[in-house]
Structures are given as C-alpha cells and as structure tokens.
Amino acid sequence: MRRTITVVMFSAMVVFGFSARPVRAAEPAGLRVATFHADVTPPPGSFIYGLQRLETIEHPLLAKGIVLEDGRRRYVLCSVDYCLLSNGTHTMFRRKLAEAAGTDLACVAVQTTHVHTAPLVDQGVAEILEAIQDPPAYYDLALYETIADRLAAAVAASLNGLQPFDQVGMGQAKVERVASSRRVPDAAGTLHWRGSSSGKRAELRALPEGNIDPFLKTITLARDGKPLVRMHYYATHPQTFYRDGRASYDFVGMAREALQEKEDVFQVYFTGCAGDVAAGKYNDGTPEARQALYERLLAGMEAAVASTAWMPAERPEWRTAPVLLPPRSDAGQSAADRRAKLLDEKVQPFMRTWHARRLAFAQRADQPIELSLLRIGRVHIVHLPGEPMLEYQWYAQRLRPDDFVAVAGYGEGSPSYICTERAFTEGGYEPAASAVGPESEGSLKAAIRQLLGVE
What we know:
This protein is an alpha/beta fold. Helix 10 runs parallel beside helix 13.
C-alpha cells in the first residue's frame, strides 16, 4: 500500500503541478464552504427499493453535502443515500435546496449513492398510477416533501457555519478487490453478466475484474492546512444485499462514516459511473463479504487522503449543459408497449411500476436534463444523470488529461442505464433495462464536452 501511495503522490505533483504540503494563499474574497447533513430515512412501514416495506433500520439513510460560496453566488453539492430520485421528485429536492441556500435551481446538484436498501422515488410514476384504475401501491410523495423540507432546513442552518477556505487538495489511490465489471467475456468471448452478489457462483467469481476504474478520487477543501470537508468519488454499484426490509447505507456509507469518525473531518461520498460496474466478483451476499468490502474501500479512502497534493483555492466556476436523451423505440419498448404492460393486472405490482417508470421517461423525453460541473482551478467535478456506464467517466477524464476530473453519476434518475452504442449491439441486462436508446451515447458525450469546455 505504501508503494501505491508514493506513486500516486508523485503522479499528482508532476502531472497537476500541486504541492505535497498545504500551500498558504490568500483566498478570493468571499470564498467559503459549509457542510450539512440530514437523516432522510423514511419511517418503518414505508416502501424502499422493490416496493419492500421497511422493517429494520440498520443504518440511517443520510443526505450529506456542501454549500460553496464565492462572494457572488452559492452552489450546492448533495449526495443522498437513496437508490434513485427521478423526474419531479429530483427537481423538488433541488428546488428546496436552492431556496434554502438562497441560490438558483441551476446551481444545485443532487446525486444519489444508489444503495438498493433505500427508496427509489419518481413523481412521474405516481402521476401515471393516479390516472389508472386499481393501480399498484407506490411511494407516498407527501412523505418525501417532508423529508426534503428536513434536508432543506439543514442546508439553511449550515449557512451560519460558512467558513473561509484557501486550499484545495487532490488525492487518488487504487481500491483493491472491490469493483468488478458486470459485463465480462470469458476466454471464448462469451459475454457474462455478473451482478452485485455473483460471488456466490464460482465460475463468475473466477472471471477477471474486467473494465473498471480502480482509482478512488478525493477532493479536500481546507483552511490553513486544516481540512474542512472531503469528497470521495468511486465507481461501483454500492450494493451487497437488498429486498430484505432493511434500510442501510451499505459498505460505501460504512466506510464514509468510519473515516469521518476517525479523522473528525466531514466526509461525503459520490458514486461514479457505475452502470456496468459492481462488487460481484468479491461479494457473495454474506456479512463477512460486506465487512471485507467496507474495509478495503476504507483503506482506499485513507490512501487517497494520504496522497493528497495541494494547490491554492481559486474562485469556482459553475457550468451547466442541457442534454436530450432519446427514449427507446425498438420492438417492445415503445410508450404504447409500456402502457399495455402497466395496465396488465397479471403483471407483478413492482414490474407494473417499472413499466410506469419507462413510460414516465418517454413522456418527459422532450424536456432536457440539466448536467452541471463545478470547477476550482484545475479540478473539475462532473454531475451526470441516470446510471451511466463507466465509459462516460473515462471519456470525461480523457478530455482533460492534465487536470483532476471527478465524476458523479446518479443525478436525475429517469433515464436509468445510459449505455454505450456498443452495449446495445452486445445485448445484456443494462441495455435491456435502459429507458434510452443507443443514440444517447453521442448526446451525452457532446454535453460532457460542453461542460468541460472542449470542442
């Protein structure tokens, strides 16, 4: 591990021109940051993923983030321990946070960690279900208005604790034996799908890790060498178990909270482009496997922190870019097909709501989804919607090879999987479960180029 840290520190200092020690510099006037958190766990008896009733709260589901102020405007970055927030529900969370922070809706990014032991809420689905006879039960949207109000109150209260910062730290380290590709070929070239707990099957466990981003990236904001907040970015499905009535922030939240307790520094975790990445090679669904994943992710976080290189803080820049992602139109995937399955009472209730999700996206597909980027000097934080495949993270980083680019997926959740065009040719679970067509690759990459200012 020591050798890995040394290599990463050297790479960061040479490539990015940073210092290994905090550099004192006069911060731009008004450059301040505040941290906030709120318990967003729904009450027992409420629905969580899979329309399971919540029975046990193993860990409180948390929403954590920062408010950044530059003397002219405020920006909000928030990560929520939910599976997905979609359509009007995602917008409602952003709007309430914008009002609480005294800023514009466009200056708020809300991502989910995508844990599957948590809610998946979509106002568009609720509206569709309300319009049909004898609909399946669904989430109580009024409850999530209340929860969003609680989070907004935490954001408003955090403004009393805005603190100046004058340094930005960048660190990265390899995470060992956590992530593995969900789409991996065997020696004969046959594509195998390896989900989040495929370690139960020896033949899937034996396949190589495949295409992953092994690096966890950590961004630290500090004042006079004292860290105020750390934000971590890593690409894997954060899922070891689900559909057993438990609420949990799973192994990624366990690592986040353990490091916060150890360092006494506020920690936020964002899931990267993990649409085709999971812990399946190393997870068999047992408590022992989850404990090992937590420990190895925590070790990666600590190594990234130890590798931190510093630069003086600069005035931030916030950029947005709209993207239109074309809905599926192939056989069996049209809005009419989805509606027919939604209305079929022989279909299981959860699957009926699944078809309503696809229909909700098709009905809003002419409304652009807003992407955003926060830049501080040579640091770029990209916020993407849906469940983007890893290629989009690699793509963003390739566009700025001399800069430090961190990517968070799982913003507006209605597109579901955002696959590559090649994935549709290969087939498999992700393109089958996607709400968007193969043309979405070109659309999303064009928006990423716009965010990063690359023509």
